[in-house]
Amino acid sequence: MWIQVRTIDGKETRTIEDLSRLTKIESLRLKIQEIFNVNPEQQRLFYRGKQMEDGQTLFDYNVGLNDIIHNNNSSSSNNSSSNNRPKSCSPSVDNQPSTSTRSFLIDPGIGLYKVRINELVDCRDVSIGAWFEGSLENVTHAAKGPNNNKPSTVSTARGSKPNKRTNGKLEIEHGTPTLDNKSSSALNSDCSEPSTSQKDCPHSEEDVSYHIKYDDYPENGVVEMSPEDVRPRARTVFRFEQLQVGQVVMVNYNIETPEERGFWYDAEITSLKEVSRTNKEVRVKILLGGPGDIIGDCKVLFLDEIYQIEKAGEAQSLSPADGKFKRKSGPECKHCKADPDTECRFCSCCVCGGKQDAHMQLLCDECNMAFHIYCLNPPLATIPDDEDWYCPTCKNDTSEVVKAGEKLKASKKKAKMPSANTESQRDWGKGMACVGRTKECTIVPSNHYGPIPGVPVGTTWKFRVQVSEAGVHRPHVGGIHGRSNDGSYSLVLAGGFEDEVDRGDEFTYTGSGGRDLSGNKRIGEHSFDQTLTHMNRALALNCDAPLNDKDGAESRNWRAGKPVRVVRSSKGRRISKYAPEEGNRYDGIYKVVKYWPEIGKCGFLVWRYLLRRDDMEPAPWTPEGVERSKKLGLKVQVSAAIPLMCEGTAEQVKVPGTKEAEAFQLSEQQQSLIREDEPNRKLWDEALCYLGEGPNFLKKVEQIFMCVCCQELAFQPITTVCLHNVCKTCLQRSFRAEVYTCPACRHDLGKDYVMILNKTLQQLLDQFFPGYSKGR
């Protein structure tokens, strides 16, 4: 096994070989020291975001074959960080001017609003552009801001956290300085452009700040606001006959859900339509405050609630004694409609639903749900002083968090492994059988009978794990792949029994079992009789005869049996001249002729199978097969990730030129179907350029017609109007999630898009990749 070690800056990458899955991290550090000349104490190794610690193994971190581990030289990183540190530190909080000097109280008689009567006003939340009812609490001179000498809006909040209100929710923002000890919170900041309704505001107002208290949000305390965000309370309702196109009014609109009641916004009327006496329509563009903050073509739902915008200094002052002058806004909670007598687990305590004791509720910073402190399990006596609080469901178990410098905590899966419960220090070995697959064949399911599309007879792989990755024989070590209730799909002929006979087109095969493989043994002497169970039974089911677990059986028509893919290993050269000289070679399809029990040379009962070749492609040891392998350019396949560990393999690793490969032959039906698939004509033109590369043509087709969602060959493909191919089930899943765009290019397909199956493309893919649709 080998891995890649890369410096943290990415400038140098080296391959470290001769490793095992059980290699200790401290042993890995020594190998890194030999290559990078970095002492183990200065090495900080990272893999998938985790810092690797001594005492653990590569298996503990799930390090796979050819994976990359980053090495950060701690000494160099410390030096670089110290060099990059600025010489002068940022000024401390004590050096900042006191916030209490930013504004100072003067005679409340200044300004255009009356403090002594707590004049009713409308104030704008610049974060969303909506207007809310409030009352005037105080007037102060505002400190000059850095921009254009305008007054700066100072926000105050409990614990230096100003609140920001959204449509129906209350959110918290961080990092705003405190002003005084009044525990007031700000929802607004200085706006670069005044709203349309405030263009006539006197210039003398620019050095004044108003202290406002929201009517519906008393928990926010007193908020300091600039003059352009404050105006007299709206009180005059327009009739439809009084409205004119281009007039600026205040309307109720819900930006998120236009069919429901929302907040109040300034709006410019764009069209008036009176269909009948009772059917009228008003369309506006919502003005959010800035010059470009406009939402066009909005339909007003509440035509009897269109208010005139009052101008500062012209409208009569209103006080609470004159009435409430309240407007209807969208409910804070869509579930209980903000009914104080209704229990609700969405806007109140999510345990009991009660709305009592609001001061005893905690808001989870993760799920944003409220909890009474006495409803928690276990209950709390007081409100905690922590800045952040998480409910029991959202809170992470600190005992499960692995911090830097700590050892890993074994997962439940690894804790149940036999290797975790043994005291043996034996290494698993450094062979390729222990590294695991780096990819998996998805073109056909694991229970596929017959050839694998794109894998011609004579294909040879250097390692068994590559045979598994190609899908020809899935087990890494086992000789038979199958299911005892279905049949066998493939087997490997590796010469494990000396009394096996291999005649090329026909050979005898010995079943599995009868050996003591306890512990970590891979091979062992025969110590008991074999039985017709498990994989032996699976291989017997491929025979065209009723199952007989006592005397065996012979097929009535051996060609009618289930096909078995046969792979010959170079280990079988000691008993067979038909085995390859190197690696593992796919020799085609065989059928089980008969099976029977007998006493082997070992002295114990074994099950024998006679298999006979039944494949249209020539065998690789025949002159025809050798010639075909040359035309296809078949060589011993070595993964591109595998380094050359021994000399003399460079010739085998070379990718054969396309001139040597035999061109892929299309049938007349396939050519006709390709011409018929007009929507994908451009894609087929690209794929047909690879016909001269033989089997690579199928790889190109698989790549071109891969579904962007499931990353597999498209099944029941839907060719969209934007000419992308997606699995029908994947597109349906996207529509169920209310995503009505193309997964590839985000072209809007529409909610009512009709999914038409491209039957021509499906028929072509079934011919190129037979069996791939099984199990999809």
From TrEMBL:
One GO biological process term: negative regulation of gene expression via chromosomal CpG island methylation
Cellular component, GO annotation: nucleus
InterPro entries: PHD_UHRF2, PUA-like_sf, SRA-YDG_sf, SRA_YDG, TTD_dom, Ubiquitin-like_dom, Ubiquitin-like_domsf, Ubl_UHRF2
UniProt superkingdom: Eukaryota
Family annotation (PROSITE patterns): UBIQUITIN_2, YDG, ZF_PHD_2, ZF_RING_1, ZF_RING_2
Chain segments annotated as coiled-coil in the UniProt record: none
Annotated Low complexity bias: 71-84
UniProt cross-references to Pfam families, sorted A to Z: PHD, SAD_SRA, TTD, ubiquitin
Pathway: Protein modification; protein ubiquitination
Domain PHD-type: 344-397
PANTHER family per the UniProt record, alphabetical: E3 UBIQUITIN-PROTEIN LIGASE UHRF-RELATED (PTHR14140), E3 UBIQUITIN-PROTEIN LIGASE UHRF2 (PTHR14140:SF3)
Domain remarks: The YDG domain mediates the interaction with histone H3. The tudor-like regions specifically recognize and bind histone H3 unmethylated at 'Arg-2' (H3R2me0), while the PHD-type zinc finger specifically recognizes and binds histone H3 trimethylated at 'Lys-9' (H3K9me3).
Chain's role: Multi domain E3 ubiquitin ligase that also plays a role in DNA methylation and histone modifications.
The protein's name: E3 ubiquitin-protein ligase UHRF
Organism of origin: Denticeps clupeoides
